[in-house]
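[stage:ingest] chain + small molecule (protoporphyrin IX containing FE)
[stage:ingest] validated
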Amino acid sequence: MSETLENTEAEAAEQDGYGSGAMAAMGPEMAADPQPVWKALRDETPVLPIDDLPMGGRGVLLTRKEDIMEALRHPEIYSSNMDAVDLKNKRPMIPLQIDPPEHKKFRKLLDPIFAPRKMQAMDDEVATLVNRLIDRFIDDGQVDFAKQFSIPFPSEVFLTLLGLPLEELETFLTMKDGIIRPDHVTGRRYGTKTASEYQQKIADSVYDYFDHVLDEREVERRDDLLSHFLDAEVDGDRLTREDILDICFLFLIAGLDTVTATLDCMFAFLARHPEHRRQLVEDPSLIPNAVEELLRWETPVMGIARVAVAESEISGCPVHPGDQVMVMIGSANTDEAEFPDGDVVRFDRDVNPHIAFGGGIHRCLGSHLARLELRVALREWHKRIPDYEIEPGHTLTYTPGIRSIDHFPMRFTASPA
Ligand code: HEM
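[stage:predict] done
[stage:export] tokens:
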């Protein structure tokens, strides 16, 4: 293994206790600058067996796009069921933790709701949310980008979709943070008793929260997603109350932090690369391409999890039932076998088969919503704030796994009103 990776592992393990060996390489240091670590792994151990996962058991870490696609295209061998990810949910989250053939039934129902044209129709509404947030700090010349923009924005979009008042923002944030990062909230390492108990308490409260809102919608339907779920049918079957709760649980963890992290990664990149930023200010028609290219380069969701449910092998490495399979999509997106100039960020890249939204049957259901949010945020922001930088002297800290930045002080010069 390369020196770069060994150093990163040692430092991350010491600072954060993320376990030993290769898993330590997935700590905060690596999250700040992942591309060199991906390259070292691809060059030297593209299929890396790990005997001592921090959560126990064995695993294998994949970094080449070809191997990754092999795993994602075979859910009958590499499952995303409840053994792959445990977020203290009572039942499988729908549709992520459902295997085929049942998975298809749920996507058939959910895909049309998040279809590109439906999402596009929300452009004005989403732009209003963006501008309302910017209004609050535009006169200050400085902002904590995370606290004042990237964290509240996706939650507000989701509250709007669900037909819930924006005043529910704090409740939403408490629920998603409690499940995704109980370690941050409790100050105890992920997986410790205190963090796990807190995570369990919050997970239980999520079911109660949505159950209560659904009771209200049973009495009086509205023009919102939850009312839609109550009446939706697939092949003549209605969704049960438990189905709807299991969908809502997943939405809360899949649809908020991901967009926050993507905005953090994109704006950190643009703050550090004024020449790229200027391209977007001068020619906003580049924004859709820039969104794809920054999703590729930054890949905010660095990896996704599978568990083997059958004997198999990947590029000669045996995989046994129960093994964790860690699929590093960030590495696939910079794999030189797929992207010969993959280490160059180019907003004029016209063919961009990145897998930042995953691949195979579980490819992101919300990708069109996410793209809308990202494009509108970049468009409205750069109209009003074309010039910005990270607060001089401040080093951004990225969270591992999903690369968000909790504290992101920024200085800016606004356009004349
Ligand atoms: C830029 C933002 C986003 C990124 C980078 C992202 C990334 C991903 C990835 C990598 C997966 C695959 C997970 C796996 O295979 O294990 C996924 C699945 C999923 N995402 Fe997203 N996501 C984003 C936004 C959203 C939004 C806004 C929603 C809201 C509806 C959403 C809902 C889902 C759902 C429901 C799945 C599971 C799909 C299935 O199992 O069939 N995501 N996402």
